[in-house]
């Protein structure tokens, strides 16, 4: 083989003999070894359980549709007032919920992850608790709250006059349960009941304290759950009580649990 300096002559390269006993490789076969195209990658489903991006002062309202989703709340995240929903009559910025979910005719199902503060709250809003609210007029309300590391206490209000309420709280919960019903029932899981002190049942309102009641001194600013229904059932349990189930439920799929 002769190679002329500066010139590459492909005709002088040795040619491999063709084995007639082997099938020729088609263009289709060759393409199978190539990486997937952008369109194929873009259409692939996202992995289940991806943590949602942190937010704060999130208000979502639906009239006829149900609400389902997972939300990560950082109570210290600053959001310009100019992009926040208008407060209701009589409310101030101190009353603004860190998360409020409302459905008129549909149900509400939400997995809430509370994050430790990543910064300082604004000078206008300084409070000790994260405020959460979920309600429906005619549907059920199912809320699971989990915490990541050490977080401030939270105050959760759930309400549905005609639907049942299910609340799942983290093991770190330490505070009051105020459960109001009229033509329905209240159920605390066995594990939660064993950690709770019943305080009263008056005018349809059951009061419980979860954790060491001796730590309660004066006005309470720790964890608190208020649940209010007329015709539905109220169920409260720890968020991880069903972790050993063979098939994860909706909350498990939302948070990858």
From TrEMBL:
<dbReference type="Pfam" id="PF24016">
    <property type="entry name" value="DUF7330"/>
</dbReference>
<feature type="region of interest" description="Disordered">
    <location>
        <begin position="1"/>
        <end position="51"/>
    </location>
</feature>
<feature type="compositionally biased region" description="Polar residues">
    <location>
        <begin position="1"/>
        <end position="13"/>
    </location>
</feature>
<feature type="domain" description="DUF7330">
    <location>
        <begin position="56"/>
        <end position="241"/>
    </location>
</feature>
<feature type="compositionally biased region" description="Polar residues">
    <location>
        <begin position="28"/>
        <end position="43"/>
    </location>
</feature>
<dbReference type="InterPro" id="IPR055754">
    <property type="entry name" value="DUF7330"/>
</dbReference>
<protein>
    <recommendedName>
        <fullName>DUF7330 domain-containing protein</fullName>
    </recommendedName>
</protein>
């Amino acid at each position: 083989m002769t190679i002329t300096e500066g010139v590459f002559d492909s005709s002088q390269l040795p040619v491999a003999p063709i084995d007639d006993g082997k099938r020729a490789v088609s263009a289709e076969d060759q393409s199978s070894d190539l990486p997937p195209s952008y369109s194929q990658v873009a259409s692939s489903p996202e992995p289940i359980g991806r943590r949602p991006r942190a937010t704060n002062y999130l208000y979502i309202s639906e009239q006829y549709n149900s609400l389902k989703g997972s939300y990560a709340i950082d109570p210290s995240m600053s959001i310009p007032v100019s992009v926040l929903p208008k407060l209701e009559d009589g409310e101030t910025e101190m009353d603004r919920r860190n998360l409020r979910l409302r459905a008129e005719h549909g149900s509400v199902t939400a997995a809430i992850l509370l994050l430790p503060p990543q910064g300082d709250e604004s000078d206008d809003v300084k409070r000790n608790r994260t405020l959460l609210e979920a309600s429906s007029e005619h549907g059920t309300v199912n809320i699971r709250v989990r915490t990541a590391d050490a977080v401030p206490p939270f105050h959760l209000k759930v309400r549905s006059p005609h639907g049942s309420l299910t609340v799942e709280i983290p093991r770190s919960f330490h505070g009051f349960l105020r459960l109001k019903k009229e033509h329905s029932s209240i159920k605390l899981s066995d594990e939660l009941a064993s950690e709770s002190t019943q305080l009263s049942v008056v005018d349809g309102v059951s009061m419980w304290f979860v954790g060491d009641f001796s730590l309660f001194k004066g006005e309470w600013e720790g964890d608190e759950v208020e649940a209010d229904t007329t015709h539905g059932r109220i169920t409260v349990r720890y968020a991880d009580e069903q972790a050993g189930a063979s098939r994860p439920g909706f909350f498990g799929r939302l948070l990858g649990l």
